[in-house]
């Protein structure tokens, strides 16, 4: 198992954001965390990333072995693509920062924009740099928080192909949150449905369709919404 | 930490507008202050109408000619006179703004001074805004006081001479001519000699004795009159002793103040801005997720802002020094004061930056705090009620601006209470505000 969380609970004052959440993701697997607004998706990802401390529960991997890609590109607009990657490679203390940066530029297809200031790039390219920073230390697990939320359809397609390649070719375990359940159906090997801080479903997208008992089965998003409604969410 | 520092310097190098403001603003202030201090204030233009007829400004007091126009020159030392011919023209000059005030000398001023018709009066007309009016009024009042003092000293001298003639005898000059006076002392001697020769039962003896007695009493009385006259012309002399606080002249203090204000603004705005930038760029969460300790991040921001603002402060001091007579042998002390002040103000800046999510909010907070701090540091004791001044002192001690000003004043001008106490105060404030910033960062997860 690449990483695992067991019995994670998180409270913000009186409100329970996550209640006894457990999940696991295997090497080379794509796990999508989906759920309505306020379900606790970003909180769960932040705990897996080590940004938030859980009030209860255990994590199998330390923070330094997990790559994290926040929803908004967490990079510097006044630095070039190469300078951003070099900065974070040095801060990650990778063995040969310059070589790692060149490899990452090639892998993300950003070599021809390497010397451009990040602020001049499109949203899609900025997100690619954002993901590249998360991959600099070659982590076995990569967490992506709504990575496609600000991208147009063409950029989304390119992003997901890149992420899919990471899982299939690099055997990286990828956990991502999304509001776009169609993306989850298309790219995830498994989905974890969170509602009101609780896991209400874990399984493949096909199993989620099966778990929803409506006779008129149209699309995955419709099935997801009805699934939640049947369980009172 | 060095990679973060390098990154911030790269970002600063590419933020041309920000760096331009940070460099140009203090240099402009330094040049303005330097020029202002080296040239001194311009004389205000004052319309001047002298209605005293030509040749009648000279009068005779006790046989000595006094030219009253010479006393008008006292006023012209401090104002730029715009000579006019009529009262209407004087009013027009003031109303049009060509002159800030008008000074009108009426035709009977000499007669009044000379003939005992009462106090001589001159007329002053003002216009313009309150600040200028206050400045001109203070200038004219002070110069009139000097002229009054000079004139009364002259009249006193003549009166003292006349008293001496009255006592000891001699020539006295009056508007109706010169007379040779016997003098009270000689008169008393003659009376005493006459009384000695008179028989004891002479019928005139009683009358002569009364006159002799009067002459004696008059001599005693006039003996007190001379020092009394001298005292009246300058009844109070001022002897100044500074018991505590700064003895720095105002222009030298202005140098320390200008540098301290720039140091405060650059340190606070830069430190608050670069820390808030980490969150505005969303990089904060990534950095503190195991890459950089929060304390290291704060130390880097303090070092960056302190280094930049100390350099700007040093450039300002050197710039002002080129215009004014600062003591260059104290250069080492300048560095110590600048470093301590920059550290204190930068620590305040990161505490502000730790509270804000955006650079704009951090900058606004920084300005909102920095400007009142600079204002409060200049409130002198006695200007406000005692209790309120105690509050001002506490606020000044709790923030780094006043200690920075004191450190710079001590380093540049050798002012009390000395440099090292202020440096220690600033280092303590640096630690306190850094700790406060570290606490404030706990609010943020990313």
Please explain how this structure is put together:
The complex is a heterodimer of chains A (233) and B (446). Chain A is an alpha/beta fold. Chain A is 37% helix and 24% strand. Chain A has helices at 41-49, 81-91, 97-107, 123-135, 153-170, 181-187, 205-211, 220-230; strands spanning 3-12, 15-25, 30-34, 56-59, 66-69, 141-145, 173-177, 190-195, 198-203. Chain A has a 6-stranded mixed sheet, sandwiched between helices. A 3-stranded antiparallel sheet of chain A has the order 2-1-4, covered by helices on one side. In chain A, strand 8 (190-195) and strand 9 form a beta hairpin. The two termini of chain A are 31 Å apart. By secondary structure, chain B is an alpha/beta fold. Chain B contains 16 helices and 8 strands. A 4-stranded mixed sheet of chain B has the order 4-1-5-6, with helices on both faces. In chain B, helix 12 packs parallel to helix 16 (419-440). Chains A and B meet through helix 2 of A and helix 1 and helix 10 of B.
CATH class of the domain at 1-49 and 172-233 in chain A: Alpha Beta
Question: How do the SSEs of chain B run, as a string of H and E?
Answer: HHEEEHEHEHEHEEHHHHHHHHHH
The residue fraction in helices of chain A comes out at: 25-40%
What is the helix tally of chain B?
Answer: 16
